[in-house]
Amino acid sequence: MVDNNALFKISYGLFVLTARDGEKDNGCIINTAQQVTNAPNRISVALNKGNYTHDMIVKTKKFNVCTLTESAPFEIFKHFGFQSGKDNEKFAGEPLRTENGLAYIGGIANAVISGEVEQIIDCDTHSIFIAKVTEAKILSDEKSVTYDYYFANIKPKPESEKKKGYVCKICGYVYEGEPLPEDFICPLCKHGAEDFEKL
Length: 199
Prior knowledge:
It is built from 3 helices and 12 strands, in the order ββββαβαββββαβββ. It is mainly beta. It has 2 domains: about 150 residues, Electron Transport, Fmn-binding Protein, Chain A (Pnp Oxidase, Chain A); about 40 residues, Single Sheet (Rubrerythrin, domain 2), CATH 2.20.28. The strands form 3 sheets. The protein has a 7-stranded antiparallel β-sheet with strand order 2-1-5-8-9-4-3. The longest helix has 9 residues. The protein starts with 14 loop residues before the first strand and ends with a strand.
């Protein structure tokens, strides 16, 4: 038996992953980024194939990982996590850029790391990108936000009125209705029905 709730006990950070294709900047929220090796420095990020940012990285082989801090407001998670860059501009004006030309988030990130993809591992719904670190810099000394901190202190609590339906344990999207289709995919974070629980 697999209790999917056990996977939520793994400690996750929260990051904005950015990419650029031509003149289009984009970014999305991810929770899986880690150092893989240190000689040379390599990192990995896992990204849902349904994200527009995924296709940009597959094409360009470049990305930035911005480590969000505990001061990141919920609006940032909504902006980069609850809407697609296919239909919305994620960066307005002239954003900050690293040496690779990609945008990054300042002010609410404590570090930015640039990666050049060396390998892509197909993991069904997601791809894991293994990348050589081409640039890395500290932006502040503020603490990095974790998934636990996000749910306890940043994400708004559900409304007190009782709704019927299912809530996504990943992003909080509420599907109203009975039953939840087995093949349902969350329109916000692209996770399947197995990551929903009854309200």
